[in-house]
Amino acid sequence: MRQMVDFTGTSQKQQQFLQKYIRHHRRVSLVKILILVLFLLQWEVTTRLHLVNSFIFSSPSRILSTCLSMIKSGDLILHIGITLGETLISFLLVTVISISVALLLWYFTFAADVAEPYLVVLNSLPKSALAPLFIVWFGTGFKTIVIAGISVAIFGSIIQLYQAFCQTDPDLYKLIYTLGGKRRHILRYILLPGSRPVILSGMKVNIGLCLVGVVIGEFLAARQGLGYLIIYGSQVFKLDWVLMSILILCLIAMGLYKVVELAEKWYCQRP
Amino acid sequence: MQPLLSFSDVCYSYHTLKGEIPAIRNITFSLQEQEFLALVGPSGCGKSTLLNLIAGLLEPDSGQILYQGKPLSLCSFSTGYMLQKDHLLGWRTVLDNILLGPEIRGVSIAAARKEALKMLEKYQLADYANAFPDQLSGGMRQRVALIRTMINAPGLLLLDEPFSALDYQTRLDVGNDICQIIRQEKKTAILVTHDLSEAISLADHILVLSKAPSHIAFDCPLKFGISDLTPLDKRSQPEFQTYFNILWRHLHETDG
Fold this sequence. Notes:
The complex is a heterodimer.
Chain A: H1 12-48, H2 54-57, H3 60-73, H4 75-107, H5 109-124, H6 131-138, H7 142-166, H8 170-178, H9 183-194, H10 196-221, H11 226-235, H12 239-268
Helix pairs in contact in A: 3-12, 4-5, 4-7, 4-10, 5-7, 6-7, 7-10, 8-9, 10-11, 10-12, 11-12
Chain B: E1 5-16, E2 19-31, E3 36-40, H1 47-54, E4 62-67, E5 70-71, E6 79-82, H2 94-98, H3 100-105, H4 109-122, H5 138-150, E7 156-160, H6 168-184, E8 189-192, H7 196-202, E9 205-209, E10 216-221, H8 231-234, H9 238-255
Parallel strand pairs in B: 3-8, 3-9, 6-7, 7-8
Antiparallel strand pairs in B: 1-2, 1-4, 4-5, 9-10
Helix pairs in contact in B: 5-6, 7-9
């Protein structure tokens, strides 16, 4: 439940409505948690009873003990840190590059008309198909992984931002022109502040896409990171590592989304 | 007396892929200083095109527009444009919205701020200087939009259906307020409207435009027996109905 409910000075009908609202949200939260607990429980029980092969499917307790031992050795923190670092750098670059390119395309209509088909094609292209090329061009390691991370999010982000810029009410342009402004004033006073919600909602999508790209990059061109751990684990049949890494990636994806969401709320708050 | 603004034989066409669309044809009229002119006519007759030509957003294909006897392109006068929607920027406070023009023109913000606060005080909006536009009623928003326009000391106010997005009662109140502000500040204004009653109650002079490509179908200066009436008072005068009937007939003729 996101907001506190105030019962003071309310009628009986209103109290019934509020209680119904609280009940509904409590039930939703309970079922959400129950599904997770039941899933983990049946996973643990079925592997302990040898109904499924714990070597192939691992188990929550095995994943937990692997996780703890890797934290102790410091390996896991290193792998998580590297994946997180690469994702954040890709995300930062995607944000800066996509806003800059979308603004340039808005400013230079000719360039936008020329670039449109190229952007559409590049956006539709499965980026994993490009990863082997990145290895040949940029070698293995950090640079290739960050570029893989950028490549997944950048084109869609440019297209989305450019379209948002183009949908600005033309009457606002008229307002700026009649106040004595030029195109650059539209950019400064209308486009950038007015597109803040679109930029922030795009950032929420982009952080997840960058993580996807970074993991693709790590599959192919890394010696460290969670993507590498997944590939290496599957090759040496250490499926505890694979499943642990996948679960950690889920947590990272959720955490990064929440961080951007919090940043969005903080930024949108009025003084 | 030299008119403030004069149009002589002005023509303008829009160019689209489907062809050339003539919007206005041989428009000739003049406007005296401190006069309030209303343009009425059927939808799409080119009323807003006329305002865009005066604001310098469009250039005429032929004919001449003179401001104080000089071609418009050689003048550095500023127009204040009020549109159907107030277009207050939601991310700026009322005061910052008003200061948009001075910021763009790069004039002293401190002086403009002082002037803006004075105007807000004068028009009963002082308590809302630091509020955001979504905290204001429709009528208050339009008054803020007018102050944003007036702070730039425009030589001419262009009002493009500024009240049409408001509900009827607010529309009468805001129309009344804004007309009085314009009179107090001794401004010259051109109002585009669909509403004949609004035009008669606010303006000194009405031009009825024909269907596009529009020309002036009827030129009607307004004179009420009692002077200095407010727009709301004018509505209860006998002349109001007479002008309404005359203009209604002409509008029907041009529309038909």
